């Protein structure tokens, strides 16, 4: 029995999830490592370390990479650079301005990445009970330590449970009105491309975590995520595959954003509530 009251057939590596991003005890294997960073992206990562040290100094508790670069699957000129910074205190407006300056500098200096994104959080929030199965899980399982003390040492081990599904992606129903508003306001090709990339990634990951406890494993690969989802919801499989393709090349699917927000997204939000319930509200 798992902490959220569901049966976990992956325990001790005997269930169907063994080898699907899990160790022999059925717990998540932390994905990514600095050793997997391709030589082509090594200068970008070095510049990131230098710039965040210069901008944040002693305010920085620790820093992490996540996404395709530390997984070793990044494509030069296509993939973006993703990093998370844990600050000793909650981030201020000045901190967010500094993060934007770092993002812009890296995006300008390196053609190897298609944009850079820095997430800022206070270390105490990342370790809090409220974030234990959301941001805490994200740091412990999907982030690769770059500098500073690793917060994962103070977090539990995780399994693919319904509790984890609920707390990571059980808020799509709350965010749908805002996403529709953003879509209506995105009138330029560049704005719609950015929003399409973000929305399609979110929908594919939400679709995957909807079925994650039943599948009994983990993957960050969007195409695989869509395929796994489709095994349990074949009637919606084609739409999820289209979303996964658009997440990689959003400019090639100019009309998909509105289609997803008007049909598949509301259905997915409702199904998520029925299966896993609503994510705990944040202050």
Automatic annotation (TrEMBL):
This is Nucleotidyltransferase domain-containing protein. Keywords: Nucleotidyltransferase, Transferase. Residues 1-10 have a biased composition (Basic and acidic residues). Residues 1-24 are annotated as: Disordered. InterPro entries: NT_sf. It comes from the Bacteria. CDD domains: NT_KNTase_like (cd05403). Its EC number is 2.7.7.-. GO terms for molecular function: nucleotidyltransferase activity.
């Amino acid at each position: 029995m798992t902490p959220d009251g569901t049966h976990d057939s992956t325990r001790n590596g005997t269930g169907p999830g063994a080898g699907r991003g899990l160790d022999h005890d059925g717990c998540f294997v932390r994905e990514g490592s600095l050793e997997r960073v391709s030589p082509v992206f090594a200068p970008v990562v070095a510049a990131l370390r230098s710039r965040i040290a210069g901008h944040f100094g002693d305010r920085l508790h620790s820093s992490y990479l996540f996404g395709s670069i530390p997984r070793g699957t990044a494509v030069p000129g296509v993939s973006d650079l993703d990093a998370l910074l844990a600050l000793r205190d909650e981030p201020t407006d000045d901190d967010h301005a500094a993060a934007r300056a770092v993002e812009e500098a890296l995006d300008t200096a390196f053609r190897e990445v298609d944009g850079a994104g820095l997430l800022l959080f206070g270390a105490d929030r990342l370790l809090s009970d409220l974030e234990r199965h959301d941001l805490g899980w994200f740091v412990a399982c999907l982030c690769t330590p770059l500098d500073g003390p690793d917060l994962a040492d103070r977090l539990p081990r995780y399994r693919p449970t319904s509790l984890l599904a609920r707390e990571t992606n059980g808020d799509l129903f709350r965010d749908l009105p805002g996403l529709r508003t953003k879509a209506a306001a995105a009138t330029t090709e560049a704005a719609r491309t950015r929003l399409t990339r973000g929305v399609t990634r979110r929908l594919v990951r939400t679709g995957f975590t909807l079925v994650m406890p039943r599948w009994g494993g983990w993957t960050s690969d969007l195409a695989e995520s869509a395929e796994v989802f489709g095994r349990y919801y074949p009637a919606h499989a084609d739409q999820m595959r289209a979303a996964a393709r658009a997440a990689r090349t959003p400019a090639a699917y100019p009309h998909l954003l509105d289609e997803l927000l008007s049909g598949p997204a509301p259905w997915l939000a409702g199904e998520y509530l029925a299966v896993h319930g609503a994510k705990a509200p944040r202050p």
